[in-house]
Amino acid sequence: MPNSPGEASPAPAAAAPPATGLEDAPLSSRGTSLLRSAPLGLLALLGPAIIAGVLVSMMAVNVPVHEDWQRVEILQNQVADTLHLGTLYAPQGNDRPVIPRVLLLALNSQSDGDLRAEIFFSFATVMAGALLLFSVLHRTLENRHWTWGSGFLIGLLLFSPLQFSNFLQAAQLGFLLPLACLALGVWTLTSRMHFAMKFVLSLLAAAIGTHSALHGALLWPLFVALAFLRRGKTVSSERLLLGGSLAICGTAVLIPYFSDGNLLLPLATGLRDTDAYLQELTLSWLTLLGSPLARLFHNDPLVPAPWVGALALLIFLAACLQWIFSADRERQDRLVPWLALAAYAVGAAELFILQNPGATPEDALDPRFISITHYLYVGIVVIIAHALLSSRRRFTDPGAHIFRARLAIALAAGCAVLLLPNWIYGIHKMSAWKHARLEGRFALHFIRIQNPTYVQRLASSAKGLRENAEFLDDRKMLEPPLATGPGFGFGAFRPLQDTLGSGARIEEARLHAEGLLELEGFATIHDRNDIADGILVTFRKSVKDPWEVFGKIEMHPANVMRAAFIDGQFGAVTNLSRKDRYAKWTGAVSIDALPDGDVEIAAWAVDAEKMEAWRLVKSFFFNRSTDKPGDDLLARGAVD
Questions:
Q1: What local confidence, expressed as pLDDT, does residue 361 receive?
Q2: SS3 for 617?
Q3: FRET label pair with 463: which of 220, 318, 335, 567, CA 20 to 30 Å apart?
Q4: Contact 592, 482 (CB under 8 A)
Q5: Which residues 6+ apart lie within 8 Å of 87 measured at CB?
Q6: What is the pTM of this model?
Q7: What 3-state class would DSSP assign to 537?
Q8: Mean pLDDT in residue range 313-341
Q9: Exposure of 96 in the CB half-sphere (CA atoms within 13 A)
C-alpha cells in the first residue's frame, strides 16, 4: 500500500543479523519455542548416555576378572594395618593408581566388595565428563539446534558399547578417570571463571588424572598449552601466570612420579632405530587411531583401521594448520578445546604404543583404547560443525542458509547411521561379556573344591587365584560365597526338579580307562533362549534319595574368528545366537566319589545369574564295578 501524502518513507531495511537458529521465530515466541524444544534437545544430548547406562546396569556382573584381582594386595595391606602413603603411591605396572586405590577402599567399604559399585562409579565419571563437554560445545556453537545435533554425535561416540571392557570391568576405573579430568580441565580453562579458580580446578584435574593412569600425565602439558592458547578476555599476564604456575606444579608432580625407572623402561626399550620397527610402530599407532570406526566394516578390522586412522589424523593436522594461520581470533579461541581433545587422543595413542614395545596392530585394536581415541573423532565432529555453522552465518541469502542446514543434517544423519553398526556390535559384545562373567561365577563358586578348567574367564593365570578368592570370600566380598564341604553339594544353586526338555540333554556318556566319566551334551535354559553357564553332575542311589553333586563341567570357550578374538572375550562366546554350536558341552568327572553298586547319574544346567540348576534330559545308570571303559552308558537305556 503506498504511503499517504506527507508520510515519511520507510527507512531502508537493515542488514540481516547473523543466523542464530532463532531468527525464524517471533521475538515473543522464542522463549516458548526454546522450552518446547528443550526435551527433544536434552534427549538428543543424553539419549546415548541413557541407553548406555541401561546396558551397563543390565550387563554388569559382580565377578572379579583379570586386573580386578589386583585389589587383593591393597585389601591385604588394609587388613594387616600396613597400608600407608608409600603403599598407595607404589607403581602398578606402568601406573601409580593412587586415586583408584583410595576409591577402591571407599567403595568396597560401602558396598561390601560389590564390584558393581566401581563399575557404576566409572560410568558416572564418563557421564560427568560428557556433561562438561556438552557445556563447552554450547559455548563453541552458541546455537541450540547445532549443539544438540553435534552433542548427539558426540554422545554416540563417548558412550559407544564398543567400550564394553572399560564400562563393565571394575579395574578400569583408573583408566577412565583421566578422561573425566581432561573434560574438567578443558571446561575450566576455556571458561570465564576467576583466575584462581581456574588454577585450582585444573591443578586438581591434572593431579587426579596423573595418579589414576599413566596417560593422565599428558594432562599437564595439555593444560599448560590451553592456558597460553585460549586467550578470550584474559590478559596476557594472567595467561602467563596461569600457564607458568601449571608448568611448575606439573614438573614438581612428574619428577617423583617417574622416579621409579621401571615406569619409563618400556618407553626406553621400545625406541629402536630400525626401519622395520618404525614401520610397525607407525602401523600400530594408525591402527589404534582408526580402531573406533574399523568395526564398521564386516571384514577383518585390521585392514581398514590404519587407513581410517591416517584419514582422521590428516583431518586433525589440517585443522591445526588452519587454526595456526587463521586471522580470526574468536574462531581460534572457540576451537582450542576441541583441538586439545583430539591432540590428547593422538598423544595417548602414541604413548600406549611406546609403552608396549612388542605391540602389534592386533594389540592396537584392543577395545579398551577406544575410550580415549574416540576423542579424536569428537574433536573432528565439532571442528566440522563449527566450520559449517560459521560458513552459514557469513551469508544472508536464505537459500544458502537452507543448503548448509540441510548439508549439516545430512552429515549428522550419515554419521549416526555409520555408527549404528558399532552400537549393534558393541551391544552384542556386552552380552557376550556378561555370559563369560556368569560362566566365571560358576567356576569360581567351586574353586575351594576344584580349580577352574578354563582360567581365562577369570584371570590371566591360575597362580594365586584360589588364594585370592578365599581371601575375598573370608571377608564376605564374593557373591555368592564359595561352596565348601567335603562334597560339592549344589552350593548356592537351587536345584529345580523339572527338566528342560530337548533343549538340555546328555548326548553321550562313556567310562574312560583312567577312572573318568566322560560326558557330552547340549544345554540351553529358559525355553532355549539362553546358554547354560555350567554343568553340575550328580548321582543318587534310589529315587527316594536326594541328588548329590560329585563333579562340574565348564562350558567350552568358543572357537572365535580373529576379528572377534581381538576384542578379548576371555573365553566368552562370540555369537550367542548360534546355540547349536556354543551350547554344546563336554568334559570328564572322576568316579572316585561314587559309591559301589548301581547309581543313577544326572546332569544339571546352571543359570549363574538366577542361581538355579535345571535337570537335563536322559539320566542313566552306572556301576563302577561292572561297567567297562569304552561302554556306551546311554545305550543300555537312559531315563528321560
A1: 83
A2: strand
A3: 567
A4: no
A5: 74, 77
A6: 0.85
A7: strand
A8: 89
A9: 25
